[in-house]
Write a structure and sequence with these properties.
Spore Coat Polysaccharide Biosynthesis Protein SpsA, Chain A; 17 helices; 22 strands; 550 residues
Length: 550
């Protein structure tokens, strides 16, 4: 054991190595950091803790040029333990599904950088200048390197001074999408590498004005990173790296990609037990317009995941056709024929459900999609949801166009509506048989007309703002489930085509919600509270209109 000392402190260093060379690293920095940005760690990965002499020397160039930084080294075992500790099962399975070590390292660096500010350099790199000298190149709390072709971003070196950056969140989601689908993409760099990193980056300046990768002498194995003056700051691989253990011919990711050996787990691993993911549903009734052929194909693709659950297509009434509108409707009513047709179609579906066996029915509109099917956990199964829901539930909304996240696991839909917040959307909901019978008793169908038999005698279907969710949910004990199990396509709308922009904004909220939840495993802050907290919602929505009709 030796002690390294200066005027400020003494640092003991224990040397235990049978190797002929090693690097001295103190328990505390031996130099004062140039600024607080030096406090973020340098991260490197390798398949094993033991490295070749050349790789060891390349690591030394980084340690010598960044003496103030903490250094973190992750071999395969350490990476798996880190992912197991911090991420959900889906992420763990996705990581293990990747055969190329380079692809696993790609995913790990995104995961680590999402949770931590860090500097990442491939373990094969040679750093030629002090790391701090590159800090002037920062842009939006990051240093990124343009790659080729255009739009790709080099992921073997980056600096990020902020945890939780959207860049890494997006990169993770793109990787998960590709792995779950066994998608080989257009090239070997787009499964987890620079193609993904570039696609995950939104906006910003042209990275090529600062750092860029270019081949020295026309050989990509000799790539270097130069600054704007042409000075080599990083050599991307030490000499002989690609010749070690015949790596380029046998284990290189490009070879495995060419031979279609990238994925070690089939898509069924991620979509496994699809049937179980809708456990508790006795039948699926889906509403579909005859003329909406593309939507119908999309819904049929969804149902292929559930071949053992009974399903029935409900031919939707079309607002383009003459409808038996109600007489004596509310004066000044503005309900459109399309809105009324949608309402009638849902009532038709509930009538059909009562002719089927079962207690719990899933009602879907033809644009409902299970985009995040691989990410659904056991807690999102309908039977588990029903067990946790308030005992008096009659319908549970599984998809909505609410433009902010729900802050309760179960939000009382009617209390929210009374408070001025319309949790819009009838694309997917579960309804009890008793509730469908209740709806049947509330309506009397005569000569193709639905009449509401409410105590006050109000006629509802041609009333102002007559929407299917209002019609169904306002008459039942309805709760909106916090996790939007079903998403909707926003390519068209047969009822409100003028609302598509609003729908897309709402879908962005849903996408962000899923990205956060599947990555960080966040659960509702209070799963026992079912009342609607208007103050929280108002804060989340900001200046959004409280009575949006969408």
């Amino acid at each position: 054991e030796i002690t390294v000392a200066d005027d400020r402190f003494r640092t003991p260093v224990r040397l235990e190595s049978a190797k002929f060379s090693f690097v001295l690293r103190g328990y505390r920095p031996l130099f004062l950091p140039l600024d607080d940005r030096a406090e973020i760690p340098i991260v490197q990965t390798n398949s094993a803790a033991n490295v070749s002499r050349r790789k060891f020397h390349s690591i030394c160039t980084i340690l010598n040029h960044a003496p103030s930084h903490e250094y973190l080294f992750f071999d395969e075992d350490h990476r798996r333990r880190y992912i197991d500790e911090h991420f959900a099962e889906l992420v763990r399975n996705a990581y293990r599904a990747l055969v190329p070590g380079a692809y696993r390292a790609d995913l790990f660096r995104y995961l680590f950088a999402y949770l931590n500010a860090c500097v990442y350099l491939d373990v094969k790199m040679i750093l030629n200048v002090p790391l701090a000298s590159l800090y002037r190149l920062t842009y939006d709390d990051q240093i990124l390197v343009a790659d080729v072709p255009d739009g790709y971003v080099y992921n073997a070196f980056f600096v990020s001074w902020r945890a939780g950056a959207a860049l890494f969140r997006n990169a993770i989601l793109l990787c998960l999408d590709r792995i779950a689908a066994n998608d080989y993409c257009a090239d070997a760099l787009s499964v987890t590498g620079p193609g993904v990193f570039g696609a995950a980056r939104a906006g910003g300046r042209d990275l090529g004005t600062r750092l860029f990768v270019h081949p020295e002498g026309g050989d990509w194995k000799n790539n270097i990173i130069s600054d704007e003056a042409g000075l080599e700051v990083i050599r991307c691989a030490y000499p002989g790296y690609y010749d070690e253990d015949n790596y380029i011919k046998e284990r290189h990711y490009s070879v495995l990609w060419r031979d279609k050996q990238v994925f070690g787990l089939p898509t069924s691993v991620f979509n496994r037990d699809c049937e179980a993911k809708l456990t508790g549903v006795d039948a699926i009734l889906w509403i579909s317009l005859d003329r909406a052929t593309e939507r119908r194909k999309g819904m049929e693709a969804v149902l292929e995941n559930f071949p053992f659950i009974r399903s029935l297509r409900i031919e939707a009434l079309d607002g383009n056709d003459p409808l038996p509108l109600l007489e004596g409707s509310t004066p000044g009513a503005t309900a459109t024929a399309y809105e009324i047709a949608c309402c009638l179609s849902h009532l038709k579906a509930l009538e059909a459900a009562l002719k089927m066996e079962g207690e719990y029915f899933l009602i879907l509109e033809d644009d409902a999609r299970l985009r995040f099917l691989p990410f659904l956990g056991p807690e999102d199964r309908p039977d588990r949801i029903a067990e946790r829901a308030p005992r008096d539930w009659e319908a549970i909304q599984l998809s909505s166009l609410f433009r902010s996240e729900l802050d309760r696991e179960f939000t009382d839909w009617n209390l929210a509506m009374e408070d001025g917040f319309h949790i819009a959307g009838s694309a997917a909901y579960v309804i009890r048989r008793a509730a469908a019978e209740k709806m049947s008793r509330l309506f009397d169908k005569r000569d193709g007309k639905f009449l509401v038999k409410r105590p006050d005698g109000a006629k509802f279907l041609n009333q102002k703002w007559m929407l299917s969710d209002v019609l169904i949910f306002s008459m039942l004990r309805t709760y909106a489930y916090w996790n939007k199990i079903f998403t909707t396509e926003n390519a068209d709308s047969f009822i409100h085509p003028d609302h598509l922009a609003w729908h897309r904004k709402a879908q962005t909220v849903t996408d962000n919600h899923w990205r956060e939840d599947i990555i960080l495993r966040r659960w509702p802050p209070d799963s026992n509270v079912v009342a609607f907290d208007s103050s929280v919602a108002a804060s989340a929505r900001g200046s959004e209109s409280a009575n949006s009709r969408h």
